[in-house]
Amino acid sequence: MLKGITPETRAILDFMCYDGLCSLDVDGIWDLFESLAWYQWHLRLLVSLLSALPPLLMIFMLILLLCALIVHLLTMT
To answer: N or C: which end of the chain has fewer CB within 10 A?
Structure first.
C-alpha cells in the first residue's frame, strides 16, 4: 500500500499517526489519506477566497483564523 513513498513522506505520516503507520490497517491508511485530501482541498479553497480580499481585510481574516485554530487546539481532548 505504501510502496513508492519517499522517506521524508513516510516520516511525516508516521508523525501524524500516534502509533505510526505500521499500526494502521488498509482502512486506517485510506482514512488518513482521505483526511489529508480534505484538509488540502479546504486549504486551497481558503487561499483562493482570501486572495480575493483587500490586503488589510485579508490580514484581519488570517488573524481570526489563527485565533480559531489556537482555540480549537487548546480545547481538543
So the answer is: C
Q: 26 vs 46, 49, 62, 75, CA distance in Å?
A: 30, 35, 36, 30
Question: 63 phi and psi, to 5 degrees?
Answer: -65, -45
Q: Are 16 and 32 in contact (CB under 8 A)?
A: yes
Distance CA 41, CA 38 (A): 5
Average pLDDT over the chain, rounded to an integer: 80
Q: How many CB atoms lie within 10 A of CB 24?
A: 18
Look up cell 488518513; give the residue: 32
Angle 55-74/26-51 helices, nearest 10 degrees? 150
